[in-house]
Amino acid sequence: MEFPGPLLDISLRTSSRCYSSRPDSSATATLPRPRLNYREISETVVFKSHNAFNRNAPLPAGAIQTIAKLYQTKKDLTDALNPRIHTRSTIGERIRQNAKDPDAKKAALEDAKVLKAEITELEQKLLEVEDRMFHLALAVPNDTHPDTPIGPESTAVTLSEYGPPPIPASPSRDHVSVGRTLKLLDLEAGATVTGSSWYYLLNEGALLEMALTNYALSIATKHGFTPVTTPDVIRADIAYRCGYQARDPQGETPASQMYHIANTTARDTTGGSPSSPELVLAGTAEIPLAGMFANKIFLPQELPAKIVGLGRAFRAEAGARGTDTRGLYRVHQFTKLELFVVSTQDQSEAMMEELRSVQTEIYSGLGLTFRVLDMPTEELGASAYRKYDMEAWMPGRARWGEISSTSNCTDYQARRLHIRYRRPVSLPSDTTVQEQQSKSPSLPFVHTLNGTAAAIPRLIVALLENGARFDDAGEVVGINLPKILRPFWVDGRNRTLVNWV
C-alpha cells in the first residue's frame, strides 16, 4: 500500500528557542518579537527577584539585576545615538550646500565618515545589549497574585469542596481493573501499537468519551462560550510565546515535554536545513486558542471574548512517574475541552471566577466528589498569575487526582503574541479626523485566561472508580453513570453495563 504523501518524522528532543531580531523569511506569517516590559523589571528588581525565587523559576543567578543594568545601558546608548543621527542629517545638508566649495565639502565628508563609524558602533552595541536583555527577560515569570500561597505543592490551600462524602479507598475500584473486566479499555494493544501510556477506549469507554465531551461543551456554550475546533499541530514559536518553557514538572533538569515534528521533505532549494517553521504537537488547546488571536487588536465591545476549544493534547512526559502513570491517569494523548478567555485588565479576575463557576457546574453535574485548590507559587509555571486546580476523589487510586486547572495569565501571553485592545475614549462630536488620530487611545495588552472544561481520561478514571458496581461476590459487573450524561449517550448496543443514577 502506498501512502498518499510524505510522512512526518515525529521525535522527542530538547530544543532551545532563539528569537531572531530579523523575521523568518521561510515562515508564511511571522510574529514580531515579544513586547517585554523592561522598564517595569528594572524598576522592581527586588520584587521581581523574590517572585522568581518563590516560583522556583529557571533563571540564571542575578538575571533580574542584569536586566536592569542592561536597560540603563540601552538608555545611555540611545541617548548617545539619537543626537548623532540628527547630526547626520545636518551634515548631509552641509554637503549639498557646499557642493561648489571643495574644501568645505571635503570637511563635511570627513565629518560624515567619522559620524557614520560612530553610529555603526553604537548601533551594534545597542543591538547586542537589546538581544542579551531580551533573552534574559524571556525567562522572567509572570507576577503572582498576592493571595497565592508561597511554596511547593504541599502548601496549596483548599478553597471549597463539593459532592458526596468520599467513597472508602479500595483496590477493587482501580479503574484499570474495572476497565479491563468490563472491556472498556485496552492498554496492551496501545503499548503494542505505539508504546507505554497509549491506550484504546472500547465499547462504553469510547461512548463515555463522546458523552463527556458533548456534555461539557453544552455547559460551556450555555454560558456564552463560542465552540472552536483547534489544530493539533502548531508552531513551536507559538507554544514558547504562550509560556511553555518545557520545564520538567518534577523540577528536574529542563527537558522538552512536547512532541517535535521533523519535516524531512521540506528542504530549501540548496538541499540544506528544512525551510518550514519548527512544528510541535499541542500539549493543550490553550496554545492554538491563544495563537488564534495573535497580532489582533480587539474593540472594547468585543471583550471579554469567551471560547471553548476541542482538541487533542499530547504530553511527552507520561510514563516517567511510576504509580501516577498507571492506566489512564497520565497518558501521552487525550481529548481535552478547553475554556479560553480574552479580557481587559479590569475584567480578568472576575473572568477567572466565572471559569471556576463553569467548571464547578460541569463536575457537580457528574456527581463527583471534588475540591478546589489555590495553587502555590512553585506550581504556577511561567505564565500564570494565579492558578486554581480541581481534584476529584479517586478511590481506586486511594488519592485525589487533578481533573482541571484554571489560570489567569494577565498580559504575559498577550505581550508575546501581540494581542491588544483599543481603549475607548470620549471625544466631542465635532472632533476632526486629525484630532481623533492625535487623541487616539492607547493599545494596552489584553489579559488571557484558560481553564479545563473536560480532560477526558481523568474524568473517566473518576467516574469508573466511583461508579463501579459489584455483585455479592465482590466482582465488578457494571458501572453507575450520572444520568445527566444520558442525553449525550449513543445507544445501539445490547450490553447492559450502565446504570443511570
Would you kindly provide a written description of the structure presented here, covering whatever features stand out?
With 501 residues, the chain is an alpha+beta fold. It has 2 domains: 38-139, Helix Hairpins (Orthogonal Bundle), CATH 1.10.287.40; 153-254 and 277-424 and 442-500, Bira Bifunctional Protein, Domain 2 (BirA Bifunctional Protein, domain 2). Helices cover 35% and strands 20% of the residues. The protein is built from 13 helices and 19 strands. It has helices at 38-43, 45-54, 63-97, 102-138, 175-181, 187-193, 203-222, 236-241, 286-291, 348-365, 412-417, 433-438, 456-467; strands at 9-12, 157-162, 185-186, 200-201, 226-229, 233-235, 259-262, 279-281, 297-298, 305-314, 333-343, 370-374, 386-394, 399-408, 420-421, 447-455, 468-470, 476-481, 498-500. α2 crosses α3 and α7 (203-222) crosses α13 (456-467). The model is unreliable at 1-28, 246-254 and 268-272 (pLDDT under 50). This is serine--tRNA ligase. It comes from Hermanssonia centrifuga.
Largest sheet, described in full? 8 strands, mixed
Judged by helices, strands and strand pairing, the structural class is alpha+beta
Instruction: Please identify which CATH superfamily of the largest domain we are dealing with.
Output: Bira Bifunctional Protein, Domain 2
Per CATH, which architecture of the largest domain?
2-Layer Sandwich
Helix share of residues?
Answer: 25-40%
GO biological process, one term: seryl-tRNA aminoacylation
GO molecular function: ATP binding; serine-tRNA ligase activity
Binding site for L-serine: 284, 315, 338, 450
Binding site for ATP: 315-317, 331-334, 402-405
